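Researcher: Re-running this chain for the archive, since the previous output was lost when a drive failed. Same request as before.
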Amino acid sequence: DCSMTAATVLDDATAAIIRRALSAAQAGRLEEACAAGQDGLQSGGEPGALHALLGMLRARQNDLSRALQHLREAHRMRPQDPSVAINLASALAQEGLY
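Model: Regenerated structure tokens:
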């Protein structure tokens, strides 16, 4: 799940990056989706949202090492975001890190 909380407000550029990445992911183009998220981070997009997105996408690819890097960073930036916490807990459990 990559949904953002209702209280989250994103700038237009970050929102567009997330829409593009999710569209690619839904079409099965996960590497393209991840590249969009990485480009967003490098171009100054909202890092908490983009790390959350990349963590979810990397977990979907079963690249749990990179997923955890992104999800830990997203959780540090957005400790109240339940979607980030759930995705982080799920990736940790998949790695046996209880």
